[in-house]
Design goal:
Elements lengths: L10 H8 L6 H9 L1 H16 L18 H13 L6 H8 L17 E4 L16 E4 L1 H7 L25 E6 L5 E6 L7 H13 L2 H26 L4 H16 L4 H11 L1 H7 L5
Antiparallel strand pairs: 1-2, 3-4
Bound molecules: zinc ion.
Zinc ion (ZN) binds next to α6.
Length: 282
Amino acid sequence: MWSLEKPTHSAQSTFVRCISRVRNGGLAARLADATQTVTTASARFDRAARSGRLHEIARHDIVAPDISIDEMGKVYTQRMAKIGAPGRDIYDEIFASAPLGRCPYCMQRSVATLDHHLPKAHFPSLAVAPLNLVPACSDCNKAKLDALPIRAEEVTLHPYYDDLGDEIWLHARVVEVRPTALRFTVIPPIGWSEVLAERARNHFRMLGLAALFASEAAEELLNIRHQLAMLHEADPEDAVKDELERRALSCADARPNGWRAAAYRAWHGSAWFCGGGFLPAV
Ligand SMILES: [Zn+2]
């Protein structure tokens, strides 16, 4: 997972902007009355997320006594996410905050939506709170849908609050049988707490990242196999290992915990792979 800068818009200003064009006078008044509740909920979210205690936020089915979950959901879908809606520029700003347009949860697929870190169906007061909105790909968004953490270990990693750092935590192991493959896994560095380690493992499992990275690595191998075969033919002893090391260092310089860096580290470290294991099954 990659960390991201927090959005700059407050929950209050975002909510006020989203409800600025409600024509139904009764609804407009009820929503306006909920502004303080929305602001308080976001502040509570911020405090809980900073201390890794999002699982302790009480689920609340209503924002204010006379606003339904459905009405609050529509503030997001019709007054923030919809093109031309009053809150759409804030939506676009958060959407565009992911570097390279990549989803920070899986670090691979393109951003396609905003994910409610805590689902709006259960936490309606956070439906348009920027701190609860994370740019994400469709697959991660679906995989996280309605996930309700009960324990601290179950809280999905949050790109605005959790920074896994540059110490190596993503590892791969070469399956040393043709056709070869990679098995990706999280191995927490020594400095991580047990809760962070378990959260990272849960995050990895819930989003199916082992399968995603294995698939990407298989495609990568397909693309470099010809070059490796040529190197192996010219110098069976060291050429493949040296080339894989150069690539591992270059990838690690860019993304130490990207699947490419982990893949090249694993391939470079396998004498079986370097000795011809990369070749297709005969
Ligand atoms: Zn994703």
